[in-house]
Amino acid sequence: MTVTPDSAPGTLVLAGTPIGDVSDAPPRLARELADADVVAAEDTRRLRRLTQALGVTPRGRVVSYFEGNEAARTPELVDELLGGARVLLVTDAGMPSVSDPGYRLVAAAVEKDVRVTAVPGPSAVLTALALSGLPVDRFCFEGFLPRKAGERLSRLREVAEERRTLVYFEAPHRLDDTLAAMAEVFGGERRAAVCRELTKTYEEVRRGPLDELARWAAEGVRGEITVVVSGAPERGPGEIGPEELVRRVRVREEAGERRKEAIAAVAAEAGLPKREVFDAVVAAKHGGAQPA
């Protein structure tokens, strides 16, 4: 479509959908679903169940918009917007573009000066934070970790000294490996909370140290998972013991760094002489200190 002098760009509406209990849907969601010219849904079957539960029938065209067709369908939806359409974007749960399809469309709409607005809705990130019992005044959302073990360790190592609370999404069948990797990189004593099936019938929040949570998850966990991890404690140079120094070096080595570079990096982040870190590693090798 081409914008003519008599037409104006439409509006892109990002609509938050329930993460579990359908009664959490904001009242405006039903109105937007009914009135939109185009409804772009991550899963049209789930959309059908949602509209039936809300007692609404979309009058506009319903199209699929998911990871597999996001790149190809974005130009089509931008053309609709430039032609004056009101396009509603919904994903399976939560807010579009937050670890879900949507970012490409938002970026493309903004580039064309199309108005973008939102229908606020339930959020697994904020709900998990609130229920975790961990500090929530400052936090980082890290989304899903890489599936490959080495890449996962590298990503975790990047935030090992992050002071803010960390929030992750994870698939249930990878939860035990992820928690074990977190325990290895952050330390098994770091506090965390695993939030499962939020707002659903079998909602569960399991809190405790990472090593304890990893043992629990090894037994098998089902459902939608959000993991909240406390930030790194503030420590002065003299408060980091040799066991912790050895653990940090080991994590870097396992992520692919050479020992010399790992020792230098750990010494720099701990504010210690390289020789002190080197001595701790040598002592651990000979049984004088054991990694945590």
From TrEMBL:
Enzyme Commission numbers on file: 2.1.1.198
InterPro entries cross-referenced by the UniProt entry: 4pyrrol_Mease, 4pyrrol_Methylase_sf, 4pyrrole_Mease_sub1, 4pyrrole_Mease_sub2, rRNA_ssu_MeTfrase_I
Reactions mediated catalytically: cytidine(1402) in 16S rRNA + S-adenosyl-L-methionine = 2'-O-methylcytidine(1402) in 16S rRNA + S-adenosyl-L-homocysteine + H(+)
Gene3D superfamilies registered for this protein in UniProt: Cobalt-precorrin-4 Transmethylase, Domain 1 (3.40.1010.10), Methyltransferase, Cobalt-precorrin-4 Transmethylase, Domain 2 (3.30.950.10)
Domain of life of the source: Bacteria
Location of the Tetrapyrrole methylase domain: 11-214
Database matches in Pfam families: TP_methylase
Keyword Transferase recorded: yes
Localization per record: Cytoplasm
GO molecular function (one): rRNA (cytosine-2'-O-)-methyltransferase activity
Keyword vocabulary terms for this entry: Cytoplasm, Methyltransferase, rRNA processing, S-adenosyl-L-methionine, Transferase
GO CC, any one term: cytoplasm
PANTHER family: RIBOSOMAL RNA SMALL SUBUNIT METHYLTRANSFERASE I (PTHR46111:SF1)
Function: Catalyzes the 2'-O-methylation of the ribose of cytidine 1402 (C1402) in 16S rRNA.
NCBIfam families linked: 16S rRNA (cytidine(1402)-2'-O)-methyltransferase
Full protein name: Ribosomal RNA small subunit methyltransferase I
Lineage: Bacteria, Bacillati, Actinomycetota, Actinomycetes, Kitasatosporales
